[in-house]
Design brief:
Elements: H1 9-18, H2 21-26, H3 32-39, E1 43-47, H4 48-54, H5 61-77, E2 84-88, H6 99-111, E3 116-120, E4 136-138, H7 141-144, E5 150-153, E6 157-159, H8 161-164
Parallel strand pairs: 1-2, 2-3, 3-5, 4-6
Helix pairs in contact: 5-6
Protein name: F-box domain-containing protein
Pfam family, one: F-box
């Protein structure tokens, strides 16, 4: 094992946090220690335009859904708080959207002590093909997340009236 991999996790997290997201993800190839560190890294950023265009592994929406779900479950199961969760799916087509997965991911993040939640969804596209409201309505579990310090929402998201009260 190299000396860098032997550093305490919090130092490895600091290193990952300072790297560009794509470079941080590539550290899993360095060693088992870096792989374990990446999968327990409390910052999760999913940007569909980067993943779907540049990384052929994520061309299939099911694989993307599996990746995000597995990553959130691993953090939750390890009892790790999610410091930051950014979900940018603005470039996806409406047929690729799933309210169920958004709600599930947001619920898992809320249960994991989320501090920063940023959601960017395509305005007016979600649910249109099902004849439903064209906006994604933020679940109330976000209001229950006492650890939440920052919430950023795009124009594709509506806040439930109960949220403001």
């Amino acid at each position: 094992m190299d000396r860098l991999s032997a550093l305490p996790k919090h130092i490895l997290y600091t290193i990952l946090a300072k790297l560009p997201e794509k470079d941080a993800a590539k550290t899993i190839a360095l060693s088992k220690a870096w792989r374990d560190t990446w999968f327990s890294f409390p910052y999760l950023s999913v940007c569909c335009d980067d993943l779907l265009i540049n990384d052929h592994r994520f061309r299939n929406m099911d694989i993307l859904v599996g990746f995000v779900t597995k990553r959130l479950l691993r953090l939750r199961d390890q009892g790790l708080a999610i410091k930051e969760f950014k979900l940018n799916l603005k470039m996806l087509e409406p047929t690729q959207m799933s309210r169920h997965h958004f709600g599930q991911w947001i619920q898992m993040a809320g249960e994991s002590g989320i501090e920063v939640l940023e959601l960017y969804l395509p305005a007016g596209k979600i649910g249109r093909e099902y004849g439903e409201d064209k906006w994604y309505i933020l679940p109330l579990c976000v209001t229950e997340a006492k650890s939440l310090t920052k919430l950023v929402l795009s124009s594709g998201i509506k806040v439930d009236r109960e949220f403001s009260s």
